[in-house]
Structure formats: structure tokens, C-alpha cells
Amino acid sequence: MKLNSTVALTLILLVLMLGAGFVSGMWGFALGYEALKGVNQPDTRPTARGKNNQDTAPGTQKLVFLKEADILKSVRVRIQQANQQKQTKAQNTDEDSNNSAKSVAETQNSPSSVVNAAFPIISQDRAVTLAIRSVRQQPGSLLLDVSLKNEGSQTIKFLYSFLDVTDNQGRPLSASAEGLPGELPPNGQTFSGTVSIPATVLDGTDKVSLTLTDYPDQQLKLQTAGIPVR
């Protein structure tokens, strides 16, 4: 009798445990289902999105083959465009060079004066006056604007091949006179002319000196020093 009671009690406890486990499992499932409601699994299928968001399986897209004539035409067009760009760039470079050369030539061809407060530079001897009024640059040479005036009583003769021009280091420079009279009358009139010095002999020269004597006596000496040429 006692054994039967023990077996019955054991069976009851076993049934209660199974029932409690089943209820706990159902309750946990219900809680998990409610928690994951609205959550979907991501689409990991190997498909591609086509037009209008339609799935397209890989390998089913249509292949488009280009014609050889179209390819060659496209290549020729690109080559022509590249050549045109090169030609345009070269033309622009040539135009810039020509404009620069033209500007330099215009600058060289237009005479310019050396502005200096020291002008005029005057030298006097025996009532004869030599004045350096300005200095002008022109292509290939430097021009000294000079004037002569005789306020004495005798005519003075000059031979301008004896005109002596030196640089600031005392080296002789070649020069030629134009517009100046060979005989300077004693009437006080001012005679103007120019003394031209080749630009090739003026490298590194900042100032020049000019000396003029009468001919043939050489008793008159007109000398001007420190004439600025730059």
C-alpha cells in the first residue's frame, strides 16, 4: 500500500513538471514572437536589380556587341580632337610669342629719353658753349642731343672726326656727329645736332664723357663728363 502511494506521488510530480515546462515554453515562444513581430530577414538572394526594381538573375542580362566600324569611328574622332587641341595650343603659344616680340620691337623702335636732373650738361671755353641737352635710345645706338653756340668775335672751325668720347673707365668709344656746323659763326646763334654712339660699345657703361676741340689750332677745348646713358 505504501509503495503504491509513493509511485502515485512520483507520477503526479512528473506530470506537474512536464506541464510546468510546457507552459513555460509556450509562454517564452509567445514573448519572442511578439518581440520579433515586424522584423524581416534580409534578401540575400544572388539577384540583380533591373529597371523598375525588378529582380534580374545574374547571367540573364542582354549583351550588346559593338560594331567594329563604330569603334574605329570613335577612335578617329578622339584622335582628331586630340590633334585639334594640340594645334590650338601651339597657335596660342605662337600668338603669345609674336605679341611679345612685337611689344619688344615696338619698345625698341620708339626712342626714349633718359630723364635726369643733371641735364643740360654745359661746357664753356673762350665764349663757346657746348651743351648736352638729353640722351635718347634708339635701335642699335644711343643719341646725345647737343648744341653749340659762339658768343665770341671769331669763327670757330670744328672737325668732328676728332670728337673724343670715352666711357666711365676712360676707354675710347666710336661716335659720329650729325647736324652740327663745321664752322661756328660768332653771332650767338644756337646750332643743334646729335652725337650717335653704337649700343654695342656701351655694354656695362653707365656714363660717358665728350671732348671737342677746334681745328686745326686745337686751342679751344670743350669737355663734358659724367653724361648718364642709363
Question: Would you kindly provide a brief summary of this structure?
Answer:
With 230 residues, the protein is of the alpha+beta class. The protein has 2 helices and 14 strands; from the N terminus they run H-E-E-H-E-E-E-E-E-E-E-E-E-E-E-E.
Summarize this structure as a short list of keywords or feature phrases.
single chain; 230 residues; alpha+beta; six-stranded antiparallel beta sheet; 2 helices; 14 strands
Q: How does this structure look, described?
A:
This protein has 230 residues and is α+β, with helices and mostly antiparallel strands. 33% of the residues lie in helices and 30% in strands. The protein has 2 helices and 14 strands, in the order αββαββββββββββββ. Strands 3, 4, 5, 6, 10 and 12 form a 6-stranded antiparallel β-sheet that branches. Strands 9-8-13-14 form a 4-stranded antiparallel β-sheet, with no helix packed on it. The longest helix has 42 residues, at 68-109. It is rod-shaped. The model is unreliable at 103-115 (pLDDT under 50).
Task: Describe the protein's topology.
Blueprint: H1 2-35, E1 48-49, E2 55-56, H2 68-109, E3 112-113, E4 121-125, E5 128-138, E6 141-150, E7 156-157, E8 164-167, E9 172-173, E10 176-178, E11 183-184, E12 190-198, E13 207-213, E14 221-228
